[in-house]
Amino acid sequence: MEEHMANDHTSSIPGELPNPSARGMGSFRTGTGLLLVPGIFSLILLFSVDIITTEMIIALGGSELNRLMAGVVAYPVAHLALKGIVLVYVTGVCMWAEKKITQSGVAAMAIIVAFYVVVALHNMSVLHVMMMTGA
Question: Residues in domain DUF5658 (predicted)?
Answer without folding.
Answer: 43-127
